């Protein structure tokens, strides 16, 4: 999305400028902004950079105020905004033109152009006569609303599948994964109904199998996804960076692009494609994550110890194992355990599926023989077991 404007519109009016409002509309539409303010240093003229960026853009957006702007160095008879409009016209780009109204409120700097005011007035008139539909706006909020509507209505080609080549960073599967069939069925049902699924721990407890269930789901249904991306989400400040890495993997951005640009391109791409899965693991802050969740026909899984996700997606509580599942898990990790020993350990641990066994079978049996579990009480035993390494 190539955004054309003069410099004062980036700063005025305060506290929210016209350019800020336009960028918000573009981001909400799932697009990225190309703007002279974001172009990096290069050994070419500004005119060349301007033309190259316009050539790569999908849509041209002009915000025309009352100031003429900077004349082009090699063509002083035209400003950069005039040149950009002409280039977009010559190349056949879709053009969305917004004209600040005479009753627009703002400081004098928004309207005063003592040197080139007559040129700008003539340019504004040419826009009316250019054959393109011009929308008049008088405030940043109105610009955001009108631009978002125009972008939503604009017919653009949509891709329904991901690029060739599979994109996959899901952690390795736990091959001794046990049980959770009802949870996996519920997860699949929620995702196929078109809403995010939140795999929740009951009572905020960790270690109940949220992450391993999400991993198992991704591997079990791998054939249904061309893209599956794991996003560690404990630190909300790092989520955008990890999504930007996905945008780079999809060749939507480079490491030189600001994260906001990478995220806008990613959201726009996922919005028009299917067969993708994003997993936000260990997300605790629903307020921070909600603006980053993509729209579209793909699937989103969130694992969390926080129960407050009711307005985000379908809640799927992860409860303790059934006793048979607990016994199967313990014996799959330590085949030397008898069913009786495994049953007693499962009982003492409250049937929690807590990671790989780290104690030797000899130590487990010694503790069981001396009655340590029963002598100390289940609650104390569980805490001590976890402190020593747990299951």
The DSSP helix count reads 16
Structural class by SSE content: alpha/beta
- The CATH class name of the largest domain reads Alpha Beta
Q: Topology as H/E string? A: EHHHEEEHEHEHEHEHEHHEHEEHHHHH
Structure description:
The protein is built from 16 helices and twelve strands. The protein has 391 residues and is α/β, with parallel strands linked by helices. The protein folds into three domains: 152 residues, Rossmann fold, CATH 3.40.50; 152 residues, P-loop containing nucleotide triphosphate hydrolases (Rossmann fold), CATH 3.40.50; 66 residues, no CATH class. The strands form three sheets. The chain has a six-stranded parallel sheet with strand order 7-9-10-11-8-12, sandwiched between helices. Strands 1-2-5-6 form a four-stranded parallel sheet, with helices on both faces. A two-stranded antiparallel sheet has the order 3-4. The protein starts with a strand and ends with a helix.
Topology:
Elements: E1 2-4, H1 8-11, H2 18-28, H3 46-56, E2 60-64, E3 71-72, E4 75-79, H4 80-91, E5 95-100, H5 117-128, E6 134-137, H6 140-153, E7 167-168, H7 181-192, E8 197-201, H8 210-220, E9 227-232, H9 236-249, H10 259-271, E10 276-281, H11 286-289, E11 299-304, E12 314-318, H12 323-333, H13 339-348, H14 361-369, H15 372-376, H16 378-388
Parallel strand pairs: 1-2, 2-5, 5-6, 7-9, 8-11, 8-12, 9-10, 10-11
Antiparallel strand pairs: 3-4
């Amino acid at each position: 999305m190539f955004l054309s404007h003069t410099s004062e519109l980036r700063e005025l009016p305060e506290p929210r400028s016209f350019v800020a409002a336009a960028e918000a509309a573009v981001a909400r539409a799932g697009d990225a902004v190309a703007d002279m303010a974001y172009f990096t240093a290069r050994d070419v003229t500004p005119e060349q950079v301007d033309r190259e960026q316009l050539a790569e853009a999908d849509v041209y957006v002009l915000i025309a105020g009352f100031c003429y702007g900077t004349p082009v160095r090699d063509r002083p008879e035209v400003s950069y905004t005039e040149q950009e409009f002409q280039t977009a016209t010559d190349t056949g780009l879709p053009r969305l033109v917004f004209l600040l109204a005479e009753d627009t409120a703002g400081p004098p700097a928004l309207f005063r152009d003592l040197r080139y005011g007559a040129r700008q007035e003539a340019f504004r008139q040419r826009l009316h006569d250019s054959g393109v539909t011009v929308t008049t706006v008088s405030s940043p909020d109105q610009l955001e609303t009108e631009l978002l509507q125009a972008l939503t209505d604009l017919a653009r080609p949509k891709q329904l599948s991901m690029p060739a080549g599979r994109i996959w960073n899901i952690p390795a599967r736990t091959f001794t994964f046990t049980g959770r069939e009802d949870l996996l069925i519920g997860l699949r049902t929620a995702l196929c109904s078109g809403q995010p699924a939140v795999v929740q721990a009951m009572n905020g407890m960790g270690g109940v199998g949220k992450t391993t269930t999400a991993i198992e789901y991704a591997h079990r249904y791998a054939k249904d996804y061309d893209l599956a991306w794991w996003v560690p989400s404990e630190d909300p400040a790092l989520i955008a960076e990890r999504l930007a890495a996905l945008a780079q993997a999809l060749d939507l951005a480079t490491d030189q692009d600001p994260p906001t640009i990478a995220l806008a391109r990613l959201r726009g791409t996922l919005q028009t494609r299917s067969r993708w899965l994003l997993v936000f693991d260990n997300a605790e802050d629903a307020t921070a994550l909600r603006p980053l969740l993509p729209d579209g026909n793909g699937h989103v899984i969130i694992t969390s110890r926080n129960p407050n996700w009711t307005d985000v997606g379908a809640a799927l509580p992860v409860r303790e194992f059934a006793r048979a599942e607990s016994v199967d898990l313990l014996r799959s990790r330590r085949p030397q355990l008898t069913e009786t020993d495994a049953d007693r350990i499962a009982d003492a641990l409250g049937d929690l599926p807590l990671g790989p066994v780290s104690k030797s079978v000899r130590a487990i049996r010694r503790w069981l023989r001396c009655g340590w579990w029963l002598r100390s009480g289940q609650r104390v035993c569980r805490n001590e077991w976890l402190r020593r390494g747990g299951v």
